Structures are given as structure tokens and as C-alpha cells.
């Protein structure tokens, strides 16, 4: 009985530690810029969608996201609305990563909000794809 209780407590402690480790700030949105062939940006405010294929623009966006360190926050389940939905594709047109940008310092990824702790998203550059030329 005592042995079973100890094993259960150890398992619970390991689960708590494992879950806590997911809250360590890290580059959540990192992708290898050489693998990205295009980025599709959907504007949640206007409903417009833009396909970014220019190599310089793709590199600028991927480098920006790779440079930002994010802290996991609360679950994003049930929240509606966003500014940009970014989907990164490789040369085979397969989706590599998808995330939602709420602001220059907040994203949604895999069911959680993440807040930028180091750097910020170049929100104005993303918005520039939707401005009247």
C-alpha cells in the first residue's frame, strides 16, 4: 500500500514538473527560413488573404518570429477574433506551422496564448500587406 502511494506521488510530481516546464519562455514560432517557400496571411479584421512568396519578405517574417521569445500563458480555447492568421508552407506546399497573431506581443499557438518576453512581432510589416498601395 505504501509503495503504491509513493509511486502515485512520484508520477503526479513528474506530471506537474513536466507541465510547468512548458511555461519556460522559448521561441515558439521558430521555423527554418530556408525551408519556407511561402506564407499565407489571413487578416481577421477584413477577411482578406495574402500569399507572401517574395524571398526577402518570407525571410523577414520568419527571422522576426524566430527572434522572439514567448511565454506560455492561459488557454485560448473559446476566444474568438484575431488580427492575423499565418500559415507557413514548405516547397512541397505542405503546411509547416500555423499560428494566430493577436498583437505585436501576443500570439495563439496550439491552444494557448503566448506573450512576447524578448522582442516583438513586426506587426506593422504584417499589416503593410493589406494597406492600399
Write the layout of secondary structure elements.
Elements: H1 2-21, E1 38-43, E2 49-52, H2 55-67, E3 69-75, E4 84-89, E5 95-103, E6 106-109, E7 112-118, H3 123-128
Antiparallel strand pairs: 1-2, 1-4, 3-7, 4-5, 5-6, 6-7
Strands of the widest sheet, in order across it, are 2-1-4-5-6-7-3
The fraction of residues assigned to DSSP E strands is 25-35%
Class from secondary-structure proportions: alpha+beta
| Helix count from the secondary structure assignment | 3
CATH class: Mainly Beta
* Unreliable parts: none
Give the biggest sheet. Answer: 7 strands, antiparallel
Protein name: DUF3139 domain-containing protein
Describe the structure.
This protein is an alpha+beta fold and 133 residues long. The chain has a single domain (27-128), classed as Immunoglobulin-like. The protein has helices spanning 2-21, 55-67, 123-128; strands at 38-43, 49-52, 69-75, 84-89, 95-103, 106-109, 112-118. Strands 2-1-4-5-6-7-3 form a 7-stranded antiparallel beta sheet. The radius of gyration is 18 Å and the shape is elongated. The mean pLDDT is 87.
Name a few traits of the molecule.
single chain, 133 residues, Immunoglobulin-like, 29% helix, DUF3139 domain-containing protein
Please sum up the structure shown.
The chain is 29% helix and 32% strand. It is an alpha+beta fold.
Amino acid at each position: 500500500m505504501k509503495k503504491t502511494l509513493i509511486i502515485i506521488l512520484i508520477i503526479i510530481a513528474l506530471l506537474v514538473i513536466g507541465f510547468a516546464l512548458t511555461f519556460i519562455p522559448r521561441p515558439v514560432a521558430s521555423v527554418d527560413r530556408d525551408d519556407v517557400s511561402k506564407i499565407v496571411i489571413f487578416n481577421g479584421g477584413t477577411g482578406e488573404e495574402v500569399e507572401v512568396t517574395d524571398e526577402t519578405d518570407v525571410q523577414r517574417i520568419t527571422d522576426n518570429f524566430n527572434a522572439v521569445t514567448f511565454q506560455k500563458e492561459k488557454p485560448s480555447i473559446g476566444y474568438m477574433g484575431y488580427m492575423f492568421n499565418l500559415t507557413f508552407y514548405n516547397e512541397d506546399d505542405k503546411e509547416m506551422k500555423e499560428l494566430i497573431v493577436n498583437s505585436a506581443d501576443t500570439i495563439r499557438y496550439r491552444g494557448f496564448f503566448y506573450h512576447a518576453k524578448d522582442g516583438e512581432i513586426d506587426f506593422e510589416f504584417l499589416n503593410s500587406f493589406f494597406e492600399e498601395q
